[in-house]
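2024-03-11 09:14:02 DEBUG pipeline.ingest accepted 1 chain
2024-03-11 09:14:02 DEBUG pipeline.ingest length=160
2024-03-11 09:14:03 DEBUG pipeline.predict start
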Amino acid sequence: MDDAPDSTTTADATAARTSAPHGAGRVIRPLHTCPAATVLVVDDEDLVRGAAKRILERAGFRVLVAADGIEALDVYDARADEIGCVLLDLVMPRMDGEGMLAALRKRGAGIPVICSSGCSGEEAARELALGEADAFIQKPYQSAALIAAIRTALHAGGPA
């Protein structure tokens, strides 16, 4: 897993200034000050969960973590107003990704969900279709691809 920081960091975004004359001197708001910039990372593998957390925090996101679908639903229920996106492993004990995604949708959660797995793309596409997810990212994560997927999901703002 590549957990090198993205080339655009929170510090870069904070220090950036607009170049237009009418915007001169304005600071561009970093991602972590946006309520939708909190990502819930759900993965049963400690190393994967930790690496995703580090990658996303270095890119300026706030990150909440859960080790399975049941724990993730508890986190969601307690902090739904903070969560802008979910990165969800498909294969986990107790409650898998498909079950967790179905439970989120039953709760009326319209937030984007990106499914992830180490399985083949064909299997993942089937899981994605069954679970009504917004996107899929293959594990192991590459920093740039993970950050891009999260940013795309946050800008899209909800399920397809």
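2024-03-11 09:14:41 DEBUG pipeline.report The first strand starts at residue 38 and ends at 42.
2024-03-11 09:14:41 DEBUG pipeline.predict end
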